Amino acid sequence: MGLKETVKALEKIGFSEIYLTQGVSEKKQPKGKRELLEELFSSYRNCTKCPLHKSRTQVVFGDGNPDSPVVFVGEAPGEDEDRQGRPFVGRAGKYLNQKIEQVLSLKREDVYITNVCKCRPPENRKPTPAEINACFPYLRKELSIIKPKVICCLGATAAEGILGKKLSITKVRGQVRPYPYDPSVKVFLTYHPAFILRNPKSDGEFVEDMKKLKELAGL
Ligand code: URA
Question: Considering its fold, how many domains does the chain have in total?
Fold first, then answer.
């Protein structure tokens, strides 16, 4: 029955006034971190802001637990990551997973892992400053959704991208800086896992840094 017919029928049985409402408005639940990240990822799935889109297989999003107090930030996807669409799944990733388990006593899925540059540079070269700058708004948004206690920069490229200045990772490793876009978030600096694989003597320093990270993040 349409509205007109309903009103007539109600009048017939004695109703003289009828109040129409639009229903009780349901309070909208705020979007969760996963939903916000999904939206962010869909917005850059087809990104063409830098030349890396021409050679990539796919954009490699961050993954893991968005409620983690720690976000690991690497450089850029390599060949394995570009193929599988997940960050740190190659040799460097296996090393990182091992340290997450052994030192932080967590599983990889318990933390969040991403990169300053979301597309693979050809021949695994370092991303250029222009490529990092083109990608930075995505990383910044990603971090503002997660709002971790600590951003752990893996290597100089990640540290320079996050802090916006040149540095020597051997000089600053193990140190903490404020995150320029939210000084309540700590930026912790350490080596890139691929560097440790090439320089196994530095494994002890990386373990030392992971212990510091554990404390900083309150793990
Ligand atoms: N894999 C990544 O995802 N990032 C790196 O920086 C290195 C390997």
Answer: 1
